[in-house]
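Design request, tokens follow.
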């Protein structure tokens, strides 16, 4: 169960205090209050996709994987060998 639903259920249905919810769920009281104010669960959306660090090597890796997919299993490179 997600934390927001758990906080809301405990407070509104079970009539549990904010302090006891915070203590049992190990979150701060302001966080419990914040979750009690929300109606829907917040959704994180990234503003922009960061450029991957392996971006310039992506074509090389793709080519290696395509050629090695056709090789017998014992002749393929291991993940460690690809990393090196």
């Amino acid at each position: 169960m997600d934390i927001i639903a758990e906080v809301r259920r405990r407070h509104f249905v079970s009539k549990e205090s904010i302090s006891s919810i915070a203590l049992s769920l190990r979150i701060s009281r302001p966080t419990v209050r914040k979750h009690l104010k929300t109606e829907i669960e917040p959704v994180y959306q990234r503003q922009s996709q960061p450029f991957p660090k392996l971006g310039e090597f992506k074509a090389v890796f793709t080519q290696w994987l395509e050629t090695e997919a056709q090789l017998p299993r014992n002749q393929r490179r291991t993940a460690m060998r690809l990393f090196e």
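Comment from the thread starter after seeing the answer: thanks! Residues 3-13 form the longest helix (11 residues).
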